[in-house]
Specification:
Elements: E1 4-7, H1 11-23, E2 27-33, H2 40-44, E3 47-52, H3 63-73, E4 77-79, H4 89-97, E5 101-102, H5 107-114, H6 116-125, H7 141-151, E6 155-163, E7 166-171, H8 174-192, E8 197-201, E9 207-215, E10 221-233, E11 236-242, H9 249-265, E12 270-278, E13 284-290, H10 297-304, H11 308-316, H12 323-326, E14 333-340, E15 342-343, E16 349-350, E17 353-354, E18 357-359, E19 366-370, E20 377-378, E21 385-393, H13 396-409, E22 411-413, H14 419-425, H15 429-432, H16 440-448
Parallel strand pairs: 1-2, 1-4, 2-3, 4-5
Antiparallel strand pairs: 6-7, 6-8, 9-10, 9-12, 10-11, 11-14, 12-13, 14-21, 15-16, 17-20, 18-22, 19-21
């Protein structure tokens, strides 16, 4: 097992990894930007090193500074969390060249699956259905127009290195395609340092279903069920649940087998997620693979009674998959709400600033993953998520009731959050019946958010 791990991330995921390391008896080194000097992960790690200014391009995306911190701190492994460099094959290569273990898949697997365009080609070769789209990267707007004409509108422009809804633009005509093409490339360059995009057919009103994969270096690959991530605003997930209300045992078996087969085809090791679009008829189409831990890994942990982050670390250290993961059984229903520092009653405008009062809900079946606290200042430079509320229950109805109760207890003063919006969704009759798709949240917003006020 590792002696010391550097966490190349920030916020709640950095804190999540620190906690897993502590339970495994591993020392931790936090890196942070100047804007994150007061962040909780910096306070709770065994050691911490500042790696640059607030801008992520000058800190959390600076490979040389992170590696320098790793050498100064004498670590033997780096956990990248999610976002930033988590799916950067070059970063994994550099770690290997410095004899530092990258807690994630091998660089070749990241190249095969972390790049979304390459992943689609890999899926086709493995016999997994994919949505129609471009054969490779789309370099010019003329080429984009040609692809759109071939597959027909509507289409989705997607960053090959994307994640978190960034670098994605829908297009329903030539004008919106050209605008979206340039907008997606600019956003992708800023967020991931890679402006490459591809185009695929936009399947309207589907469910967004993902399968959790865990694999070890001894040839064992398993899936640990699905998560329904259809509750999205501008392609950014805001609520997830497992199991999916859409899922049947037959469909779960079919999609799970496809996910395992695809992971095996690239010799995958570690935690990963296969993402699909599923229509009302049970047809599924592979979209991409996230070669890292997901934000919403928490609901799989609660529903199956396992620890995915600790499993990640143990697998990276060469251990075989644990008995609990190899034989994981669905025990509960779990729902997650991502709490963002945004004002849902003002077009979801970002709401950075100082938190004057903070009270997190608790009680049976409630888990809070957060780096926020009273007196903490939410910086304007990064993703707006400040917490995740996870509710579990023996039934879906029980989990919804607990989530609604927990959200009603959540107190954050000084900034605006999405809590009241999510609490209203928990009361929505269609959501309660499980009748929703990726267009659900957008329709609520279009109908008028103001009426959702408590």
């Amino acid at each position: 097992m590792f002696n010391k791990v550097l966490i190349a991330n920030r916020g709640e995921i950095a804190l999540r990894v620190i906690r897993a390391c502590k339970e495994l008896g591993i020392k931790t080194l936090a890196v942070y930007s100047e804007a994150d000097v007061d962040s909780l992960h910096v306070q709770l790690a065994d050691e911490s090193i500042c790696i640059g200014p607030a801008a992520s391009s000058e800190s959390y995306l600076k490979i040389d500074r992170i590696i320098s911190a790793a050498e100064i701190g004498d670590v033997d492994a780096i956990h990248p969390g999610y976002g930033f460099l988590a799916e950067n094959a070059h970063f994994a290569d550099v770690c290997a060249s410095c004899n530092i273990k990258f807690i994630g898949p091998m660089p070749d697997a990241i190249r095969a699956m972390g790049d979304k365009n390459t992943a689609r080609a890999t899926a086709r070769n493995a016999g997994v259905p994919v949505t129609p789209g471009s054969d490779g990267l789309v370099e010019t707007e003329q080429e984009a127009l040609k692809v759109a004409k071939k597959i027909g509108y509507p289409v989705m422009i997607k960053a090959v290195a994307g994640g978190g809804g960034k670098g994605m633009r829908p297009a329903h005509n030539d004008v919106s395609l050209v605008q979206g093409f340039h907008g997606a490339r600019m956003e992708a360059e800023k967020a991931f340092g890679n402006r490459g995009v591809y185009i695929e057919k936009l399947i309207e009103n589907p469910h967004h279903i993902e399968f959790q994969i865990m694999a070890d270096s001894h040839g064992e690959v398993v899936h640990i069920g699905e998560r329904d991530c259809s509750m999205q605003r501008r392609n950014q997930k805001i609520i997830e649940e497992t199991p999916s209300p859409l899922m049947t045992e037959a469909l779960r078996k079919k999609m799970g087998a496809a996910s395992v087969k695809l992971a095996e085809s690239v010799g995958y090791v570690g935690a990963g997620t296969m993402e699909y679009l599923v229509d009302d008829h049970g047809n599924f189409y592979f979209m991409e693979m996230n070669t890292r831990i997901q934000v919403e890994h928490t609901i799989t942990e609660e529903a199956y009674g396992i620890d995915l982050v600790k499993e990640q670390i143990k697998v990276a250290a060469g251990e075989p998959l644990s008995h609990f993961v190899r034989n994981a059984k669905l025990k509960y229903h779990a729902i997650e709400c991502r709490v963002n520092a945004e004002d849902p009653f003002n077009n979801f405008q970002p709401s950075p600033g100082k938190i004057d009062l903070y009270y997190a809900p608790g009680g049976r079946g409630i888990r809070i993953d957060s780096h926020a606290y009273a007196g903490y200042t939410v910086p304007p430079h990064y993703d707006s998520m400040i917490a995740k509320v996870i509710a579990m229950g023996t039934t879906r109805g029980n989990a919804i009731d607990r989530m609604r109760r927990a959200l009603s207890e959540y107190i954050v003063r000084g900034i605006k959050t999405t809590v009241p919006f999510q609490e209203a969704i928990m009361r929505d009759p269609d959501f309660i019946r499980g009748k929703y798709s990726t267009s659900f949240v957008g329709k609520i917003i279009e109908s008028g958010v103001a009426k959702l006020r408590r």
